Amino acid sequence: xxxxxxxxxxxxxxxxxxxxxxxxxxxxxxxxxxxxxxxxxxxxxxxxxxxxxxxxxxxxxxxxxxxxxxxxxxxxxxxxxxxxxxxxxxxxxxxxxxxxxxxxxxxxxxxxxxxxxxxxxxxxxxxxxxxxxxxxxxxxxxxxxxxxxxxxxxxxxxxxxxxxxxxxxxxxxxxxxxxxxxxxxxxxxxxxxxxxxxxxxxxxxxxxxxxxxxxxxxxxxxxxxxxxxxxxxxxxxxxxxxxxxxxxxxxxxxxxxxxxxxxxxxxxxxxxxxxxxxxxxxxxxxxxxxxxxxxxxxxxxxxxxxxxxxxxxxxxxxxxxxxxxxxxxxxxxxxxxxxxxxxxxxxxxxxxxxxxxxxxxxxxxxxxxxxxxxxxxxxxxxxxxxxxxxxxxxxxxxxxxxxxxxxxxxxxxxxxxxxxxxxxxxxxxxxxxxxxxxxxxxxxxxxxxxxxxxxxxxxxxxxxxxxxxxxxxxxxxxxxxxxxxxxxxxxxxxxxxxxxxxxxxxxxxxxxxxxxxxxxxxxxxxxxxxxxxxxxxxxxxxxxxxxxxxxxxxxxxxxxxxxxxxxxxxxxxxxxxxxxxxxxxxxxxxxxx
Length: 593
Hints:
- The protein is mainly beta.
- The chain has one domain (8-592): Neuraminidase, CATH 2.120.10.10.
- Helix content is 14%, strand content 40%.
- α2 packs antiparallel against α4.
- The chain is globular.
- Mean pLDDT is 82; it is low at 1-27, 79-102 and 376-387.
């Protein structure tokens, strides 16, 4: 099942019918609308029960919570005729693209972005890419897909979109919303991670909520057998009872990742964070729990085994988040994540052999967050708690900015583990701007300082002993004065010939540290030196708070970088967010060798 892509002509006709009194024929029926509202309210009510620290780290469900608070504002608007405003034509879009770097390709089609609302438009961001041979698929969070499935669909909702290329990422075709299935209770909530096992077979892993009340929090895998052009309904890799106000405390499953074993493409791994508020888990007893867990499939993603606990933290003031996966040529799985302790944020890693258990975790480094840090304290006289959120200049969050890759080239560097993250240790200045915002039972207070981030890399030949972190971006933070530059949200991959690629967002060319560009770099010597490239035509200001569906502080938490999983060709393809069309956020892709 696939959804037709929305166009200006079709949408204009649709709203013409609505204004002519045919709304009952085209709008969702009352039962479907009530089911959608109930699901969104349930997510919000369950979210409101979580400890404040866990609320701040919960990613994918934050959009559903935000949407729940605004649903009764949005739904009527979707059924009103849109104001007359001509979107960019395809010819105008082509002209804009021709002015950009020829290595940069448009991924989503922005021509219909304002069709639903000329006031806000739609947002495409938080991308991930998979490539097998010449076939490339990009997945992304897409508020337009929510509107598409709400308006034109008859089943569930989708916050995920995708685009397909058959020429190694030179051109893409936007295929619209990911298929959420026929059930009204189904809700695909984004956080895309893409994998492929061959040019025909692609997998799309994402957050998924399904089932009659109270329903299930799930991580689902959608599968395509025609190179990403059409997709089956999402199939749950793991499911746990969803938290709600009227049900014994439950779970939120968040920040999923996935990987395929190059030594056995039928073996697939999926990881996630379980924000467990049952207060009845074996490991944490009556305390709240946050855990990194992994499930494995040995039949190409059709079925998955029981969860493997990688790390769990008990209590309201500690947490884990942001797991990433990579598999070596010998089938050894590496798992990277962040552990939030009362005083630090640790980057930790472990390995799991096929059918085995996690080895004792290794501390790679203590991460120094960048931007302006938010602290929390309970109402009353309690002490300040641990860092909850970091916002970069422009007031958008930099939640989990890390990535992992393992060399499976079969060459001299085979098995090398690479870890990258953004880090604010290079320069920090005082910042007099300080605000307090009451949010449930906590008060959020800025730390009064701003740390400028650099992209760091650490590597290991055995997955246990890691090198001292080295800076990847070639520029240095100014030693004097209040100026500095953010480099953030790095993505990493290793191509079939052992070359390492990293891409990130970069502000070095704006003295005010506001405008954002895309930079990429490659290393042929395991990260000892880098050949750096500025992606042309990508300078833009922070872009968020543009629609009522997307969480206001959100501008995407990651962008994946990939190489050819089939092992035949050199180079990398990576998608990223950019304000390219002059009206709202879009997704582009960059190719380099």
